[in-house]
């Protein structure tokens, strides 16, 4: 039985449901904040102001509010997510709506994004309580140990080595239901944890995927167990009983019950006010069209992400002097804010056609039984976003020459059948022109298939974030300089060729008569299909963001000209001002960035607590004590 009418009803009603819940939440907050709020709150001085409630900001607010004597203000530009956000299977249909998504747009790219409208990449980011953890694919990945050891080397601070950040990863875990629960060194549960981690609950074609890897030198690996390397792995995710379990469910709902925490919804942070001594006094923000000011006694902490955090700093007069002057902003601190921007990118290989009904073909499989299985049992394809349940890591040729298996390629396996609604979701979510995408997919609508996304997770290209003008509500200018470094293209081509060979030549997929149709990408007709030049052309057309921008408020040594914050995440030259989010990464980790951002939130809030405990010469300012030893190799003693 086919369920095409049901699928199209859901697909076309989703925008209206998002609008309805967004409008209801907005006007409810407008009425309560305008007519029923305590006007004396405008005179409240908070100990800490945290801007942004995503993967890092929610953690910071949570950890700083453990003492009832500490007043914390959490400022969020969006409102509450709707029930739709909790359903993983419709994640792709929830991005690209202004009610909950920043929908940042890059400037036109010269070397990439040729299949996109105006050569621009759309960067989806959560404008909602919980931030991007309410829109993402819920991957729980930490990265390679070398990522963090490299940070320690670049910054000169051993506290950022893998051995020393591992306790912060573990501290966040409340419940681990993954495949490697026996690995207590990496997965022990914490009394202070809030995260629930589990495997995907729908694994169609996984056995074929796994066997194909083993036949081609890709063993099954523990991607988070400190030994990440070339191999295949199931995806572990921040889910609970099959539902999304981001920082909204894990943290924000608990914060709302704390009398010492105030959460401001629909409040757009514009800039930080600095006094004559460059101390942060508070934050100017816009709530429901009214400009307001919140005052901080101790610190202002920016956790607004790699686009908004640098924008707020530059609006505050902290940034490259020449650029600030060009838009009419007086420079207070000349720092390279907005530089060092880099992002994970991927290209799409689809459709890999198969001859058996083993993929999720919504028009055939989206049945009442599937809805029941999700709603009652927490199982089935609706527990998996975009059918993404497995992944692979691969070190390209240039990395292998170094003798270290530090993967620069990450592949995503999604047994999703080829259909119109899939094509529309990809097109809308990635700003792709339908006239380029549809010739690849439309001839195969209604066929069982799977999709492979090939990601570059150690890019060498670097870009920047700039201000458009001095209006804090204007969109920033984002230029990632995608694929400007030739090594990035070479690595992706190597990864694409390897992955196509694996899935077309392995015995399990041969039995399914697996094939990637040999049809040209529009704009690449002049190249021999599957040649190096052809794949390079395909990659430059289909340059898809993985929504992991980092690096724009770079952490580093105080004498490093590229540093914006020191290793305790304090803005250089300022007082009472920190940045705690993915923008501080000196270099990007080689995996999805949500878990590393939470780790940064843990490490950053720990640095804040350490500093203020020392200022007051007490050990009980927070609910547990510190025993920091600056020369110690392991810092786990800080956490308990």
Automatic annotation (TrEMBL):
Q: Name one GO molecular function term.
A: oxidoreductase activity, acting on CH-OH group of donors
- Which cofactor names does the annotation list? FAD
Q: Give the keywords, sorted.
A: FAD, Flavoprotein, Membrane, Transmembrane, Transmembrane helix
State whether keyword Cell membrane applies: no
SUPFAM superfamilies (UniProt xref): FAD-linked reductases, C-terminal domain, FAD/NAD(P)-binding domain
Q: Where does FAD bind?
A: 128, 547-548
What top-level branch of life does the organism fall under? Eukaryota
Kindly list the residue ranges recorded as spanning the membrane.
7-24
Q: Where is the Glucose-methanol-choline oxidoreductase N-terminal domain?
A: 126-149, 305-319
* A family per Pfam: GMC_oxred_C
Family named by the database record: Belongs to the GMC oxidoreductase family.
Please state what the protein is called: Glucose dehydrogenase [FAD, quinone]
Q: Which organism is it from?
A: Folsomia candida
């Amino acid at each position: 039985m086919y369920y095409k009418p049901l699928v199209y009803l859901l697909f076309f009603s989703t925008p209206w449901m998002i609008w309805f819940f967004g409008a209801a939440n907005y006007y409810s907050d407008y009425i309560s904040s305008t007519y029923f709020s305590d006007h004396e709150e405008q005179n409240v001085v908070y100990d800490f102001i945290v801007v942004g409630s995503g993967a890092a900001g929610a953690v910071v607010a949570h950890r700083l509010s453990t003492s009832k004597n500490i007043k914390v203000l959490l400022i969020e530009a969006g409102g509450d997510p709707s029930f739709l956000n909790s359903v993983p299977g419709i994640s792709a249909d929830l991005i690209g709506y202004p009610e909950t998504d920043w929908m940042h747009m890059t400037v036109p790219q010269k070397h990439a994004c040729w299949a996109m409208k105006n050569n621009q990449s759309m960067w989806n980011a959560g404008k909602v309580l919980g931030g991007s953890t309410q829109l993402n694919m819920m991957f729980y990945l930490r990265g390679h140990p070398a990522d963090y050891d490299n940070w320690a080397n670049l910054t000169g601070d051993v506290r950022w080595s893998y051995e020393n950040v591992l306790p912060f990863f573990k501290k966040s875990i409340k419940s681990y239901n993954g495949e490697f629960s026996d690995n207590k060194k990496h997965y022990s549960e914490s009394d202070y944890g809030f995260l629930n981690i589990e495997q995907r609950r729908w694994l169609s074609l996984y056995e074929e995927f796994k066997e194909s890897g083993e036949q081609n030198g890709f063993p099954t690996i523990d991607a988070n167990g400190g030994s990440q390397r070339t191999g295949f792995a199931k995806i572990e995710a921040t889910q609970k009983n099959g539902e999304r379990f981001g920082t909204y469910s894990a943290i924000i709902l608990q914060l709302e019950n704390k009398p010492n925490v105030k959460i401001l919804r629909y409040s757009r942070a514009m800039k930080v006010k600095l006094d004559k001594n460059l101390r942060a006094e508070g934050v100017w923000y816009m709530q429901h069209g009214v400009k307001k000011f919140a005052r901080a006694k101790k610190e202002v902490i920016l956790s607004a992400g790699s686009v908004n955090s640098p924008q707020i700093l530059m609006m505050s007069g902290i940034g490259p002097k020449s650029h600030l002057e060009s838009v009419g902003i007086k420079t207070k601190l000349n720092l390279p804010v907005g530089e060092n921007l880099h992002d994970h990118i991927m290209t799409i290989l689809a459709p890999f056609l198969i001859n058996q009904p083993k993929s999720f073909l919504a028009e055939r499989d989206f049945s009442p039984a599937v809805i029941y299985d999700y709603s009652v049992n927490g199982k089935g394809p609706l527990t998996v976003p975009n059918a993404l349940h497995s992944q692979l890591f691969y070190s390209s040729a240039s990395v292998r020459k170094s003798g270290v298996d530090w993967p620069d390629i990450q592949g995503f396996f999604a047994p999703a059948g080829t259909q119109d609604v899939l094509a529309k979701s990809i097109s809308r979510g990635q700003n792709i022109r339908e006239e380029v995408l549809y010739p690849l997919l439309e001839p195969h609508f209604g066929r069982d298939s799977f999709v492979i996304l090939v990601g570059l997770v150690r890019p060498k290209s670097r870009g920047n974030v700039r201000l458009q003008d001095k209006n804090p509500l204007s969109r920033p200018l984002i230029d990632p300089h995608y694929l400007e470094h030739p090594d990035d293209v070479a690595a992706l081509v190597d990864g694409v060729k390897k992955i196509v060979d694996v899935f077309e030549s392995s015995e399990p997929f041969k039995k399914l008569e697996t094939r990637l149709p040999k049809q040209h990408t529009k704009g690449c007709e002049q190249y021999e299909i599957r040649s190096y030049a052809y794949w390079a052309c395909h990659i430059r057309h289909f340059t898809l963001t993985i929504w992991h921008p980092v690096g724009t408020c770079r952490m580093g040594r105080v004498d490093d000209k590229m540093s914006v914050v020191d290793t305790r995440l304090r803005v250089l030259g300022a007082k009472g001002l920190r940045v705690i989010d993915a923008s501080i990464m000196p270099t990007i980790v080689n995996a999805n960035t949500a878990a590393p951002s939470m780790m940064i939130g843990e490490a950053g809030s720990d640095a804040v607590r350490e500093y203020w405990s020392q200022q007051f010469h007490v050990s009980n300012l927070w609910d547990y004590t510190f025993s920091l030893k600056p020369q110690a190799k392991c810092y786990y003693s800080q956490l308990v």
